[in-house]
Amino acid sequence: MTSAPAPRLRRLAPLAGLLALVALAACAPQDEVKTGASAAPSGCAKGALATKKGGTLTVGTDKPAYAPWFADDKPASGEGFESAVAYVVADRLGYAKDKVAWTVSPFNKAFAPGAKDFDFDINQVSISAERKQAVDFSSGYYDVRQAVVALKSSKAAGAKSLADLKGVKLGAQVGTTSLSTITQQIKPSAQPAVFDDNDLAKAALKNGQIDALVVDLPTAFYITGAEITDAAVVGQFPSAGAGAEQFGLVLDKGSALTTCVSQAVDSLRADGTLAKLEQRWLSDAVSAPVLK
User: Fold this and answer.
1) Could you give the CA distance from residue 213 to residue 205 in angstroms, rounded to a whole number?
2) Residue 41 has what pLDDT?
3) For 2-55, what is each residue's pLDDT tens digit?
4) For tag attachment on the chain, is the N or C end more exposed, with fewer CB atoms within 10 Å?
């Protein structure tokens, strides 16, 4: 992500990788977080992890928190895919809903160097080698595909292939895999427009400053269904197969919780819980044509 329902992020192209490093460099390390946690035992004992605040699992995400990842900008509601995922992970770790506290963490700051004030962050952050230099990631909880959104009146709306998009003006949020998808897969004839967040990118699309916007697929459906109704999902990018982009939960670099959180995510994938949540909250994602 973007921050907007934001991937964001693996296998970045040289330009995107440079932008990601710039973003990392721009975020000053945070002060060391002082908490009263850590009298908790080591290991993955349920409800007794070495969390920031003893007895509480603190989860970070950006604000606003967008659909379909969250509902009504209320992460604590349990509504929306990522809110639901956060709570089932918490449950596997031994923290009931009333033992989960939410904190605001801007998208780019979540994976910047420095100590965090969350135990894990969930905000469409794609797992990437660059980001792993600064933070830990859990196992992936969602396999991401990128998609193209254009106004129905735009010349980009009729694109049937990646080649059809080479000559249009494209845009994406800075530091995201959406941007690297443009530079690596479409390789447009003109430099893509880069925006600080998806709200600015959507405004540019509505104003005709760009012909098309690249975002992750669930976000694309939300934009066209609820925000820019005279726009359409042109198509989605092909899956990368075993190396597919994935969203991961973000943790402090070297966090004692990383293994425990990954085990929880792995168990949720293995027993079908993640698939059921995806079907409930992101079911539109299968209907977009694939751009080849």
Assistant:
1) 7
2) 41
3) 444 444 433 333 333 333 333 333 333 333 333 333 333 458 999 999 999 999
4) C
In total, the chain counts a number of residues equal to 292
Cα(121)–Cα(238) distance, rounded to whole angstroms? Answer: 27
What is the phi-psi region of residue 278: left when phi exceeds 0, alpha when psi lies from -120 to 50, beta otherwise?
Answer: alpha
pTM attached to this predicted model: 0.73
Q: What is the mean pLDDT of residues 52-66?
A: 95
Lookup result for tokens 């539109």: 284
Indicate whether 98 pLDDT > 90.
yes
Q: pLDDT of 166-189, one tens digit each? A: 999 999 999 888 999 999 999 999
| Helix axis angle, 81-93 to 258-270, nearest 10° | 110
Tell me, what DSSP letter sits at residue 142? Answer: E
Instruction: Give Cβ neighbours of residue 283 (< 8 Å, ≥ 6 apart).
Output: none
CA dist 223 to 14, 29, 158, 220, 245, Å?
28, 33, 18, 5, 21
Task: Please return the burial class of 141, using the count of CB atoms within 10 Å of its CB with bins 0-12, 13-18 and 19+.
Answer: buried
Give kind and range of the element (H or E) at residue 280. helix 273-282
Q: Would you tell me how many other CB atoms lie within 10 Å of the CB of residue 2?
A: 32
Contacts of 7 (CB under 8 A, 6+ apart): 1, 124, 125, 126, 144, 176, 177, 178, 216, 245, 247
Q: What is the pLDDT of residue 36?
A: 36
- Using CA atoms, how far residue 124 sits from 142, 144, 152, 198, 208, in Å, is 9, 9, 27, 13, 27
191: left (phi over 0), alpha (psi -120 to 50) or beta: beta
